[in-house]
Specification:
The chain is mainly alpha-helical and 71 residues long. It has two helices and two strands; from the N terminus they run ββαα. A hairpin with a 2-residue loop joins β1 and β2. It has a two-stranded antiparallel ribbon with strand order 1-2. It is elongated. Helices cover 58% and strands 11% of the residues.
């Protein structure tokens, strides 16, 4: 079927070598990518201060309700 390489006294299939190289590139790419903070909420774009306060109060009430339901 495919070719084999003799590495450290063992036969290793070429497709296993390819998969190892691709996995290595993927791991290096993931390690180099910048980490993002997913805990930060998206900004609130309200047309007025009243609307902004309403949204913030609603979110606080919803979080409090979730914490109460979790206990």
């Amino acid at each position: 079927m495919g070719g084999y390489f003799n590495i450290a006294g063992r036969k290793v299939a070429t497709h296993h070598l390819v998969l190892g190289v691709l996995a290595g590139y993927g791991l290096v790419f993931k390690a180099v990518m910048p980490k993002t903070d997913k805990t930060q909420a998206p900004p609130i774009k309200a047309s007025s201060d009243e609307e902004s306060r309403f949204i913030q109060d609603f979110l606080k009430a919803a979080e409090a309700e979730d914490k109460k339901a979790a206990h």
